[in-house]
Amino acid sequence: MEQKKTIGFVFIDKFADWEFGLLSGAATDWFAARAVALSPVTGPVRSIGGLRLVPDRGIGVAENSDLDAIAVIGSDTWPDEDAPDIAPLLNATLVRGGIVGGICGGTLALARAGIFEGRKHTSNGAGWIESNLGDYAGSSLYQDVPYAVRDAHIISAPGSAPGTFTTNFLEALFPEKAGQVAEMREFVGREYQAA
Predict the structure, then answer these.
(1) To the nearest 5 percent, what fractions of the chain are helix, strand and coil?
(2) What is the mean pLDDT of each run of 10 residues along the chain (195 residues)?
């Protein structure tokens, strides 16, 4: 029996409600993955919309050695100087051959961890990462586009692109299911074709 792939979703206080649902829902329902909520705090965190989420586990490397992928969800608090350092978890996942993605403010966690060095990536507009962190490794490879960018095992996206974040993430995590991912991409794109 094939073991389910496990995706850890990193949430911090004031996380963005609209950035994870399509990925977590599609991954579990369409691709039989398992979703796990991670947070650096032990108690509940609240979304921008005021919803309360209780994490399944922390962000320690040892307790997350089973993860095949990590999705860092945006939050109004990622730009803060005291934002949590999740670099050890992100880098350990990459070393194991896992997928690491960040959307919106979550891209700041990837930039802080040095993950964009030598990799194409995007975020919330040209200069946005620098305006929050200053210069960072890989800044010359920033792609100023309104959709997600995938470079091997790294996916990044602006907060306005949860659809392409989802499809790029699934494509990286399930390369053997290209047909299903193409179907998902077409499904997500229908909304914009009709508009």
Answers:
(1) 35, 20, 45
(2) 88 97 96 97 96 97 98 97 97 98 98 98 98 97 98 98 97 96 90 73
User: What residues have CB less than 8 Å from 59, skipping those under 6 apart?
Assistant: 10, 38, 39, 40, 84, 86, 89
CB atoms within 10 A of CB 71: 27
Helices 21-29 and 162-173: crossing angle in degrees, nearest 10, is 40
SS3 26: helix
Strand residues in the chain grouped as ranges (E)? 6-10, 34-38, 45-46, 52-53, 69-72, 99-103, 149-151, 154-157
d(CA 176, CA 157): 23
For residue 69, give the 3-state DSSP assignment: strand
